[in-house]
Specification:
Order of helices and strands of chain A: HHEEHHHHHHHH
Mean pLDDT of chain A: 93
Distance between the termini of chain A: 60 Å
Radius of gyration of chain A: 21 Å
Helix content of chain A: 55-70%
Structural class of chain A: mainly alpha
CATH topology of one domain in chain A: Multidrug-efflux Transporter Regulator, Chain: A, Domain 2
Oligomer: homodimer
Shape of chain A: globular
């Protein structure tokens, strides 16, 4: 397809596509003349990924590039490949290990983890933030949040596996892309629903327009 | 207490406290001499709030000020006061109503909502992002996420209510502050735990160091 058709299929404007091409976030099309090139479904998929990372994830281009680098040349070990891609996703946490609050809580909950992983660093920052605000969260409360997240995670894994043809082994780059998109695109859904369920409960006790 | 003691009690550096004072995010202390002022517990609490919004929420000062404005002078109706404070929190979504995807899905799920609320706008943006990436989420899947979030929200409400003395009516500004902090500080915990539960499940199927 031509660049105008790629724009139409993706909903991304032509100048933005040209910008991604210049920045190397989208591989060049196949030249069909001195001024025109042809793009395929691979370009469309890559464009959808880049757009999700930039627009939904709010990621800077350097971090988008880090995800693409993993997709181009993933570590042979799937756990490492996925971890490297997820490390490029926000929130960006500056403190280094040891993550004492997070690891102590995860040990008490009984959830397996890599001590140096970004998700542990993010949990540490979140727990430190609660503590600094004078609202520490104990391991019991954290464990109850983890239970609900485990229900969600198990269902998500089952859904992905049900959609996959077991006769065709999954390409590692596809697995990494699934995990990245499932993180960046679904997190805002979960947070919006937490706010909406709270609003619905609050509304039951304090109908809008009432004074107390 | 003096500004150095406020810094120690809050963990916020003196230059940052002075910056918040200049920006009007922290009310001035009671002058005790030409160059010194005294601060109280109200200052400490306000400082903890501002720090949470800036450092954990990543909010620009104009949005922090919008939350403080609601706390200074909340609308008499609690639902409106809380909604106005939450509207200042990220993610910042630019598209206006109608939020067709979100309201159709919420109607199907059976969750009550205010059609113009920011949480509905955020859900709409999240659903549009999934659609643009070629991974639309149907109302069934959304309803299952909402179920888990409702479990979490009900427990959170019960915890807050158990900590409150029923003989003392809650100050509206305190209710608003509780909801704001419960949103900004707990959201990163929930997301970190979703990533950690996924990592634990992935690790079961693909032990680190293995090749497939």
């Amino acid at each position: 397809m031509r660049i105008s058709e790629l724009a139409q299929a993706s909903g991304v404007a032509v100048p933005t596509i040209k910008y991604y091409l210049r920045e190397g976030l989208l591989p060049p099309g196949r030249a069909t003349s001195a001024t025109q090139a042809s793009y395929d479904d691979g370009h469309l998929q890559r464009l959808q990924l880049v757009r999700s990372l930039v627009e939904v994830g709010g990621m800077p281009l350097a971090k988008v590039r880090a995800v693409l680098d993993v997709l181009e040349d993933p570590a042979p070990d799937p756990y490492t490949a996925v971890s490297e891609a997820l490390a490029a996703l926000p929130p960006y946490v500056s403190a280094g290990p040891p993550y004492e609050r997070a690891t102590a809580a995860l040990d008490e909950i009984g959830l397996a983890y890599e001590p140096s992983s970004y998700a542990v660093a993010q949990l540490e920052a979140a727990l430190a933030g609660l503590e600094a605000a004078g609202r520490p969260l104990d391991a019991g409360a954290l464990g109850r949040y983890a239970e609900q997240m485990m229900v969600i995670a198990r269902r998500e894994v089952a859904t992905v596996e049900a959609q996959r043809d077991p006769a065709v082994p999954a390409e590692l780059a596809d697995v990494v892309q699934d995990v990245v998109l499932g993180t960046v695109l679904v997190e805002p859904v979960i947070l919006a629903l937490r706010r909406l369920t709270h609003a619905a409960l609050f509304r039951e006790r304090h109908p809008p327009g009432g004074a107390g």
